[in-house]
């Protein structure tokens, strides 16, 4: 359908079996011998349109090039965001480990202070608030 409307993503945009094979990601011989139904579905609207096997228009070709550029830009942004998300996940993991260590150290220090002062730790006896 992309070839028929003049917006190819992977081929040169010509309405030929070779362009169709490139567009769908098959080798030409697989398209002509194994997937003949796909080839026939493609050629029916092409024949109805006329004998011209060239792309719809230069404007459609330019639109396709712009879409390719937009797609490349969006993929680059996606890859950048993905790497930033991975970096942030690593930072969160490091902060969680540091927080856990600080809590353990704090608990140990509180216990040492309680042992030295002979003061009971009331926080450990506290009931949860209902």
How many strands in all? 0
| Class from secondary-structure proportions | mainly alpha
Count of alpha and pi helical runs: 5
Distance between the termini: 64 Å
Which range does the strand content fall in? under 5%
Rounded to the nearest angstrom, the radius of gyration is 33 Å
Specify the biggest β-sheet: none
What is the overall silhouette? rod-shaped
Mean pLDDT: 80
Q: Segments where pLDDT lies below 50 for 5+ residues?
A: none
User: What percentage of residues falls in helices of 4 or more residues?
Assistant: over 70%
General description of the model:
The protein has helices spanning 2-5, 17-24, 28-33, 36-49, 58-117. Helix content is 71%, strand content 0%. The chain contains five helices and no strands. The chain is mainly α.
Brief summary:
The chain has 130 residues and is mainly alpha-helical. The protein has helices spanning 2-5, 17-24, 28-33, 36-49, 58-117.
Pick out its properties:
130 residues, rod-shaped, 5 helices, mainly alpha
